[in-house]
Design a protein that fits this description.
Helices cover 56% and strands 0% of the residues. By secondary structure, the chain is mostly helical.
Length: 132
């Protein structure tokens, strides 16, 4: 099996291997022809209207896919499920406006509280008779 192997001995060795495998020349030719036909693609003509009479027998019927029916799922009533739905529910459309205005409203609320305290102090001073 070296690089200097005689071609005639190599041919004899290969012939012996073929015979041991049970393949003679006749079987090789038959298997070779079968392998050639198996390698070629099979035409099915699903989307093509065949006009030639020689190949009309190879036309296949149009495949009709099965009708899809949506599965019906019965919803179980859960208190936890309802809470989950409320937490997942979409926000109101004006949530971004409220977010943007909230700091300004907080500032106004503080000013309003201070003004109310000042008014109450003024009323107490007037009621007690002390000048402001």
């Amino acid at each position: 099996m070296g690089a200097m192997e005689d071609p005639s001995t190599r041919a004899a060795r290969l012939r012996a291997l073929r015979e041991a495998a049970g393949l003679d020349k006749g079987e090789q030719e038959v298997n070779g022809a079968a392998a050639d036909t198996a390698d070629q693609p099979v035409l099915k003509f699903r989307n093509y209207t065949v006009r030639d009479d020689k190949i009309t027998h190879e036309k296949t019927a149009v495949a009709n896919p099965p009708k899809y029916e949506e599965p019906v799922v019965e919803a179980e009533v859960d208190v936890e499920g309802e809470e989950l739905l409320l937490s997942v529910a979409p926000k109101k459309p004006n949530w971004d406006l409220r977010r943007d205005v909230e700091p300004k409203l907080a500032k106004l609320e503080r000013r309003t509280q201070r003004a109310m305290i000042l008014l109450m102090q003024n009323q107490q001073h007037h009621a007690s008779g002390e000048p402001t």
